[in-house]
Amino acid sequence: MKPKSILIGVAAVILVAGYGLGRARASGVGPATPASTAPVQTRPGPAPVVRPAVVIPKGTMLHVRLNEALGTATSRPGERFDATLTEPLLANGVTVVPRGTQVSGLVREAMPSGRLKGRAVLMLALESIEMNGRRIPIQTRAFTETSGRHRKRNSWWLGGGAGTGALIGGLAGGGAGLAIGAGSGAAVGLTGALLTGRKQVRLPAEAVVGFRLEQPVTIHG
Description:
CATH superfamily of the largest domain: Type IV secretion system, VirB10/TraB/TrbI
CATH architecture of the largest domain: Beta Barrel
Strand content: 25-35%
Radius of gyration: 46 Å
Largest sheet: 7 strands, antiparallel
Oligomer: single chain
Structural class: alpha+beta
């Protein structure tokens, strides 16, 4: 092949290649470029709202309504009880613990009275507040309820009953009757004392009881 013919062929190839590249650029199609590996930038979401901790001061009163009856005749030391707040707990005039919040407590003492002497004593204390699925420990001063004193007429009835029985027996049958009457009178007098001598403390369900905080309580948001 002649050199001139070779040069003409090479020039034709170059022209065709250039023409095709120009059309590709005009149509927006070009050589593939590698995909970018730069990380995708995303906007951060809103930050969670964190409420500051609030402190309920020492000495705050908690008024609660009992969910069950408690008393010296039925309750035992160490038993737990449930109750409901009847008033909200405030801090700086703002409600921290709403009305109706559940609380739990402990029976510290439940001592019935003796048959002829001694007082019945019922002692309760709150231990926790239920808020947002959490149990917040608290310390309160114990609520103590005590029965009244036994009346002196119990002892008088015991002795007086025996004396009266002796007198009736003596009048009815002389000496032997006197002894029998004394025994009968003592039994009657003792029965009367036992029936009137026991005193119990009982708080019915729905009773409202007040407790005072002994330590401040921190409520986290």
